[in-house]
Amino acid sequence: MRFHSDGSLWFASAAVPQLENVGDSEGRSGLFRIEPTSGKITRAAILPQGEAAQVLGDLIIADNNTIYTTDSLSGAVYRYFIEADEFEILVERGELGSPQGLVLDESGQYLYVAYYIGGLFRVSLEDGDLVKLTVPENVTDYGIDGLYRYGDELIAIQNGIRPNRVVALKLAGDGLSVTGSNTLASNLAEFDEPTLGVVRGDDFYFVANSHWNRFDAENNLPDDLSGPIILKIALRN
Fold this sequence. Notes:
The protein is an all-beta fold. The chain has one domain (2-234): Neuraminidase, CATH 2.120.10.30. The chain contains no helices and 19 strands. A hairpin with a 4-residue loop joins strand 3 (29-35) and strand 4 (40-46). The mean pLDDT is 94.
């Protein structure tokens, strides 16, 4: 979820089997706008049904009229125009397999997108062209869920590798490679599949315990789970 400059809150949601009372909505996904003061949903932008099951799992607001979002099941990256209430495909279905977190580069001309089992890619907003970032042999860019930018670093939540961790990935000047990494948090007691977060100033706030890994074969959760835990990491130095 992300705050728009007008004060509203946009979030991505999907009717997955783990959703209680999903009913006939299973497989549908969309972007939704909520007014925080009233809790009223003022926009429900349902993604056209291009696949049997679709999951918009993350989004970034580029400007007053444009949102970018990833479909982790079909592999597509979409551009959504708020005023026209229309989705446009930026990256075709299947190109990335399972795209997760995404963030704009400093110029606003590119997106960095985390392909969960394929590493980091840079996407041109002009034509959707994909370039895979190169990384040093001692750095892994796999298993990234949440992805954020802090200056010339990408802050990544890696819940697809063990142990789960939060890392800062240093970008080269041309933005096409990672030159090094710094582990900010790893294998904490509070971790139970950390997932998404937000950079505010010099601090990074994130959900430490999504519990997504705790669903059983019947899509039920155990009764003894803790409530949400939000952690903060100081990014400077």
